[in-house]
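Interim report, section 4.2 (structural modelling).
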Amino acid sequence: MTEKVLMSGNHVIGEAAVRAGCSFYAGYPITPQNELTEYMAGAMAKLDDGTFIQAESEIAAINMLIGASMAGARVMTSSSSPGISLKQEGISFLSALELPAVIVNCMRGGPGLGNIAPSQGDYFQATRGGGHGDYRNIVLGPASGQEICDLVTKAFDYADEYLTPVMILLDGMMGQMMEPVVFPEYRDISTLPEKTWKIDGAKGRPRRVIKSLLLDVNVEEAHNWKLVRRYEQIKDKIQMAESYKTSDAKLTVIAYGIAARIAKSAVDRAREEGIKAGLLRPVTLWPFPERSLREAASNNTEFLVYEMSTGQMIEDVRLSLNGSSRIHFHGRPGGPVSTPADIYEQIKKYYPR
Amino acid sequence: MITKTAFAGSGGQGVLSMGYILAYAAMRDKKNVTYLPSYGAEVRGGTANCTVCISDEEIASPVASAPDYAIVLNKPSMLKYQGIIRKGGIMLVNSSLVDAKAEREDIEVIYIPANKLALELGSERAVNMIMLGAFAAKTGVTSLESLAGGMSDVLKSKSAGLVDLNKKGIERGAEYALHER
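Predicted structure of the assembly:
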């Protein structure tokens, strides 16, 4: 399909997943991601081997993913903040079991039930490993319809390559907003590398075991270090960020997702008035694009972190820069969305004189 | 050049459809476009609004600080949007349902008796297309042909009668806005 189609972010996720070869989706309704669950119901029904399950709960859905992923399918589930909290046990298990899966969090205002407005309050949960144990997941933060498509496509490949859950982290507004998107062709999944670990019947071959109960402490420790070596590989290979007008910036805004789009307009307005502002937009939230940040910092800029939260990504900014630069913060937790004019005011407020 | 247009009214008035059809028409014209709906708790009779950005360049923020244009179908929407539309902008008001006048002097306000015009065409379902036709004619953000083409594409699975009615609505709205006010 080379033709542009006008679609909401939630629908783009669904279509991109189907084209990437996803044949198993389980989920439970919650706003503002319901359109995705609805889309997958229709899309899976059209596939010869597609499975769609509206599960009895979010917990059931993530556990169904464990089974379907073990059996070798490309699998996805989606939810919004409170529902993602419920899935954390399963995400920890998927990580321990080294199972590929794509998990979508269309964030809403929290904590608790909160509201259905767009938010970025789940950054810690997503990037730190929201469940128990020593694990990390790849976390991708798209900022446009086309990027949602591209990153969902990549997410399935990363999950298979690095044997890990991959989270698509977006906010309710990204899920609802429509933009023109060009989709890739359908992936021929018979061309993907064989999953030599999958559990599909042991007739004629040695049996395979996938489990996370490792009672021998030495075995568990070795397993943890094995995961860490893979995380190091991921950190090395897939850091992604967009740098916009950063080369001569004296104040660089750092924002991701929809917040970065709003900030970009503010940066444009600031530039029109001779203010040397720039934007650095992390695309991979884990691994955090430390290299891009350090490169920007080497140009002697100060930073303004803008998040739709009380300040979560700013910790990764501080860790990346390790005291080398001044870092300011502007946050709007709980659902309100800043306008470009609001962020422009923040740029003026913090612009170094 | 980027234009940001806000659409607002009650749920069920076709507010989101107006925005979607404009966005679709602009995409057909090879423009960059974003369509940002309000979402969630809105139901029939509640408030509904959306913002459509159209540009030849990449669109950064889909959120408007101060929209260039607003199309408002009821009084609460007019009261809200007359406060945030940019200086020199244009607001189109459905005067069949809004009995007040806008208070801003520094914007152009165009009153369209859309329900009355729609009834003359045979159905109040044409109200939103009358407003959209008037909008396109006054602002030039998109052509009437693109709008009608986009509308037909969007509604092709619906009845041919509705598409015809909507086409007439777009033309009638444009005609009224340009010649009859």
